[in-house]
Amino acid sequence: MMRIDKRKLGDARGHFSRLFCNQELAGAGLDMEIAQINHSYSARKGTLRGMHFQYPPASEVKIVSCLRGRILDVAVDLREGSDSFGRWTAVELSAENWCSLYIPPGFAHGFQTLEPDVELLYLHSAPYTPDCEGGVNPLDDEIGIKWPLDVTEISPRDQALPTLRNLPRKISPDAATAPPR
Ligand SMILES: Cc1cn([C@H]2C[C@H](O)[C@@H](COP(=O)(O)OP(=O)(O)O[C@H]3O[C@H](C)C(=O)[C@H](O)[C@H]3O)O2)c(=O)[nH]c1=O
């Protein structure tokens, strides 16, 4: 995983920044072609979304940016055979810090809003493929994500996601990623 610190080019009018550049990413050894861009809005502080991923052949890179408000963004390593399998890591993303998170294939992604009225932008390297959708429970004690706030909103689907030990299958890191276009 990588935190991307985007440059804000400011002047008297405000600022400008580059949200995505595959040339710059390639320069940092990160490979990404955009297949889909998603935008989510969460009204309440404490909203929990996740932990989501897609199985091969639609496993995907995600680059997540917080355009409004502030979140704790979390990823869990689900790659079969990984030394950090089942471990989570978190980064605070906000409109203020203007950082993005690069999440490679094989990681589940989720977040909790730390303010009301949060908007997120997702860049995906694979299209939404319902047959490849996967998820792991964000409240699984075995993973032990330390969410900072009491959960105020969570979808029934996310509440019912399997725990780590009940995942139907792991994600083979060398399996095909985004389907051929
Ligand atoms: C991703 C997607 C979803 N949908 C449908 C499926 C559901 O009926 C509805 C909301 O999807 P979902 O409940 O998965 O939305 P979130 O819980 O906000 O999931 C999102 O937030 C978590 C943290 C992520 O990492 C996911 O990539 C991202 O999809 O939109 C579509 O129609 N097209 C799409 O591309």
TrEMBL record:
SUPFAM superfamilies: RmlC-like cupins (SSF51182). It catalyses: dTDP-4-dehydro-6-deoxy-alpha-D-glucose = dTDP-4-dehydro-beta-L-rhamnose. Pfam families: dTDP_sugar_isom. Its EC number is 5.1.3.13. One of its GO terms (molecular function) is dTDP-4-dehydrorhamnose 3,5-epimerase activity. CDD domains: cupin_RmlC (cd00438). Pathway: Carbohydrate biosynthesis; dTDP-L-rhamnose biosynthesis. GO terms for cellular component: cytosol. The active site is at residues 52, 122. The record marks 128 as: Participates in a stacking interaction with the thymidine ring of dTDP-4-oxo-6-deoxyglucose. It is an enzyme of class 5 (isomerase). InterPro entries: RmlC-like, RmlC-like_jellyroll, RmlC_Cupin_sf. It comes from the Bacteria. The keyword Isomerase applies. Belongs to the dTDP-4-dehydrorhamnose 3,5-epimerase family. This is dTDP-4-dehydrorhamnose 3,5-epimerase. It comes from Profundibacter amoris. The gene is rfbC.
